[in-house]
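[Automated response] Your request has been received and processed.

Submitted sequence:
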Amino acid sequence: MGQFSISANILRVNKVGTIYLEFICKDIAGAPAGSFYSTFPEDPFDGAQKLYLEATTLDGDRVHAKEFSIKISAFNRVPPFRLHVFFYEIYLLDNDKLLRDSDDYLYLELFEKASLPANKMNSTTSTYGTESSSWNESEITLPESKVTIINKEDRTVVKVSGKFDYNDIYSPLLFYIGLSSGVMPQPYCMIRSTVDGISIHLKSTHKPQRHKKIPEPFPSTTVGGGWPNCQYEILRQMIHVKCNTPIRFDGSYSQWMRVWHAFNSEKNITILTLGVAIEGLLNDIFIPALKLIAADEGFEKSKVELIERLKGIEAKEDHIDSLVKYVEKWGNIHAGKALAMLVEKGLVQEEERKAWGELRNSATHPKFKENTEARQEKEHKRISKCLTLFYRLVLNVYSYDGPMYEFGKLRDADFMKREFVKILE
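Generated structure:
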């Protein structure tokens, strides 16, 4: 690993929203030779090779960054030369003792608008003395803390105070806002309490993702059906699931992110990703639960006995292996069978199961078809039914018992409540 002597550091943000450091390298030792590019760390998958930055601003504040890389080309091997280093985030630390002794605290700012049901009104007074009011704040109580989400004109502000664990609440907050609003939350600023005091983080964002949405599962305003408490309960359940069954949280969150990106891409990518995301939810979350529900000890015992008998017959070894593997698959629950079981239990509708099968088949076995209005309408309905199915599965992970959109119409979706069906323990 090389050593650098640097000066004239300037932190900037490029046109796509990435924070980077521009510096002049005055001296370098230990850079590997013999290649057009020298990269630090040399092996990005080696956890022992990590870069850390600690710099001092003109005001005397210390700025930190970690887990970044540096690339030096053959044209920049003789100092002095200029380099750009890109960061996911940079942060400053405030070691004030009073801050260390206070309650836990988290503050976020996002460019994306949060479409959440509001339960508080705020007033604004201009410099001319005029006053305006709006319902733009959602306050959600947790067992030992409180979450406040405020929609301002140019940004969304999120605050959490009380007693909580940052690692338990940060990603559920982003998932909750993103799922409810159809946006991809990108905090550009974060302030959080640590054991040493307060850390202030400035984060890179991806500008092309700003102001983009996908259809969200419910509106921000409505009445009845337990609204908005049932909607706020999603966040509480996300935190609970992340702490107790993290694979369910990680699986649903990752599949939602894939679907979000796919809906902001080409239609063929949307079709393929949506079908695969539903299958991913089934494989990671629902099929393990359905296996426990459908377990038949007698059937499994008979399978084992048959396999042992097959291993003892006189035949070619590869033929016996084929027979054994075939029997081993008896009773397995694949995605299609899982959806059929969920139809029987009432969580999924038959037309949604059918739409998913058609969507997966068209994505995995594509063939040219004339792009007529009739075909476009058919694809729209199929994608809409599958999007409803996707949201139905995701929200069931978090025990959501409230209304949601039923997509499928060419214009406005129906907003309705189905009877809650408990699948996961």
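Summary generated for your ticket: The chain has ten helices and 17 strands. The chain has a mean pLDDT of 86.
If you did not submit this request, please reply to this message.
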